[in-house]
Specification:
- This protein has helices spanning about 5-15, 20-30, 35-50, 55-60, 70-85, 90-105, 110-135, 140, 145-160, 165-170, 215-230, 245-255, 265-275, 320-325, 325-345, 365-375, 405; strands at about 180, 200, 210-215, 235, 260-265, 285, 300-305, 345-355, 380, 400, 410-419.
- It is of the alpha/beta class and about 425 residues long.
- The relative contact order is 0.10.
- It binds S-adenosylmethionine.
C-alpha cells in the first residue's frame, strides 16, 4: 500500500500541474489530513523537491522512456519516485516499491511501465547524473530553464557576486522559515536572531502571531532601510498585498509618530493586509488601483514593492521557475514604470520613494532605476549603504541581496529622494 503522505504529495503535484500554487494548495490539503507533523514535513519536502528538480528528473526519465507519450499522472509518479531515492533519505527499493503502489492506486494501467522505468532508473540514474554534471549544459544539472540561468548570470556578473552556480544550488533547497518581531516587541526568549534584520529571528512554534509574523529577512531589511531613509510623516505602501511589509512598516511608523496608507488592487488581498494591520490605529487600508487612487496628501515615504517576475524567491515557490517566461518582463516593466511615475507626483519634498522587487533581473531592477532617474530630474538616488552596514556590494547605490550569500530572497532596493 502506498503511504498517505505520498498520496498527498502526488495530489499536490497534480493540482500544481493544473495551475494551483503549491504554497497555497499544500496547507489546504494538509488541513483535511490527519498526518503527523513529521509526515507533513515529508509531504512538503517530497512535493516541493520534485517540483524544483522537474527539469533534471525529466532528463533522466527521458533516458528510459519516451516522455512525451506519458500521462501527466504517470510522469509525476516517476518524478516523485526518482526524487525520493536521488535526493531524500528513502532507500532505493522502497522508492521503487512506493512508486509502483502509487501507480496501482492512481493510474493502474501504467503500473508495469512504472515498475520497468523505476528499475532502470534505480540502476542507472546516479551514473547518468554524473555524466550530466560533468557536461557544459547547466539546464538539467541545476534544474532551471536556460533563460532564467542566463538572466541570473548577467545580474550576478553586474553585481560581482560570484558564480551563478551557487545561487542555482541554493534555489533547489528548502529555506528555513524566518520571522519578524513587530516593534516594539522584543525578540522572543531563546530565539536565534538573523543577521540582516534587527527584528528578525529563525521561526519558532507557538508564538502569538499578533506580535510575531513569518517574513523573510530580505523583506524585513528593505522595509527597515526604507523607513530609516525617510522623514517622519505620511507613509504610503502602493502595493501592499498580502501585507508583510505593510505590517512591519506600520509598526515602525507607530514608533516614529507617522501614519501608513496601504493600497492593494485586489480586494481579497486587501483583506489580508487589513487583517495584518488590525490593531494599528495609525494605518488605513484601501482596495484600489494605486495609479488612480484619490490621494489626499503628499507622502514622506512611498514603498513600491512592485509586481515582478518573483525570480528572487525560487526557493520558496518551487513551481514558479516553470510558469514564468521572458515575455512577461516587458508587461511588468510597464507596470513598474507607471507606479514609479505616479509616486513621483505625490512625494513630499525631501521624501523618499523605495522601489523594491523580489527579483534580481537587471531589466526590472537597475534598468528601471536608471530609467526613473533619467526621466525624473527632481529625484536623486540615496545610497542604501548609508542606512545599513550589511556586507553587500557597497560600490553600488542600489542594493541586491542573494539567497546563497544572504540566506534571504534576492530582494532589490533603490531609494529615490525628491529634491
Ligand atoms: C510583490 S506584491 C507586494 C507584496 C507586499 N508588499 C508584501 O510584502 O506582502 C505586489 C502587489 O501589488 C499589487 N498591485 C499590482 N498593481 C497594483 C496597482 N496598480 N495598485 C495597487 N496594487 C497593485 C498586486 O496585486 C500585489 O499584491
Amino acid at each position: 500500500m502506498v503511504t498517505e503522505s505520498r498520496k498527498l504529495a502526488y495530489q499536490l503535484l497534480m493540482h500544481v500541474e493544473a495551475g494551483a500554487y503549491a504554497n497555497i494548495k499544500l496547507p489546504q490539503l494538509l488541513k483535511k489530513s490527519n498526518l503527523s507533523k513529521q509526515d507533513r514535513g515529508f509531504v512538503q519536502e517530497l512535493a516541493y523537491g520534485t517540483l524544483r528538480m522537474k527539469i533534471q528528473h525529466d532528463a533522466l526519465i527521458g533516458e528510459v522512456t519516451e516522455i512525451k507519450k506519458l500521462e501527466t499522472s504517470v510522469l509525476n509518479i516517476l518524478r516523485m519516485g526518482l526524487h525520493e531515492f536521488l535526493n531524500m533519505r528513502t532507500e532505493t527499493h522502497a522508492a521503487v516499491d512506493q512508486a509502483v503502489e502509487l501507480c496501482k492506486a492512481e493510474a493502474p494501467k501504467a503500473a508495469g511501465l512504472v515498475n520497468a522505468c523505476m528499475r532502470k532508473l534505480s540502476s542507472n540514474a546516479e551514473q547518468w547524473l554524473e555524466e550530466l554534471n560533468s557536461g557544459e549544459d547547466k539546464v538539467a544539472t541545476f534544474a532551471h530553464p536556460k533563460w532564467i540561468i542566463d538572466a541570473l548570470s548577467a545580474s550576478r556578473e553586474m553585481d560581482t557576486a560570484g558564480d551563478v552556480e551557487a545561487l542555482l544550488i541554493e534555489n533547489n533547497k528548502s529555506p528555513k522559515p524566518q520571522m519578524v518581531a513587530l516593534p516594539p516587541n522584543p525578540l522572543p526568549e531563546n530565539s536565534i536572531s538573523l543577521p540582516l534584520s534587527e527584528f528578525g529571528f529563525e521561526s519558532m512554534d507557538g508564538l502569538d502571531l499578533t506580535n510575531y509574523r513569518y517574513q523573510d529577512q530580505g523583506s524585513q531589511l528593505v522595509t527597515q532601510i526604507a523607513a530609516k531613509a525617510a522623514p517622519n510623516g505620511n507613509w504610503l505602501d502602493m502595493c501592499a498585498g498580502p501585507g508583510g511589509k505593510a505590517s512591519l512598516l506600520a509598526a515602525i511608523a507607530s514608533q516614529r509618530d507617522s501614519s501608513l496608507t496601504a493600497i492593494e488592487l485586489y480586494p481579497k488581498r486587501a483583506d489580508m493586509v487589513r487583517h495584518g494591520l488590525k490593531g494599528f490605529a495609525n494605518a488605513k487600508v484601501f482596495a484600489s488601483d494605486a495609479l488612480t487612487f484619490d490621494y489626499q496628501s503628499d507622502y514622506e515615504l512611498i514603498l513600491i514593492d512592485a509586481p515582478c517576475t518573483g525570480l528572487g524567491a525560487l526557493r520558496r515557490k518551487p513551481e514558479s521557475r516553470h510558469n514564468k517566461h521572458p515575455g512577461q518582463i516587458q508587461e511588468l516593466n510597464e507596470i513598474q514604470r507607471n507606479l514609479l511615475s505616479k509616486a513621483s507626483t505625490i512625494t513630499a519634498k525631501g521624501g523618499v520613494i523605495a522601489y523594491v522587487t523580489c527579483s534580481p533581473l537587471i531589466e526590472e531592477t537597475t534598468s528601471i532605476a536608471r530609467w526613473f532617474l533619467d526621466n525624473h530630474p527632481d529625484y536623486e538616488i540615496l545610497p542604501w549603504s548609508d542606512y545599513s552596514d550589511i556586507s553587500a556590494n557597497k560600490n553600488r547605490s542600489t542594493l541586491q541581496l542573494w539567497s546563497d550569500r544572504d540566506n534571504a530572497d534576492c530582494m532589490f532596493l533603490a531609494l529615490f529622494q525628491k529634491q
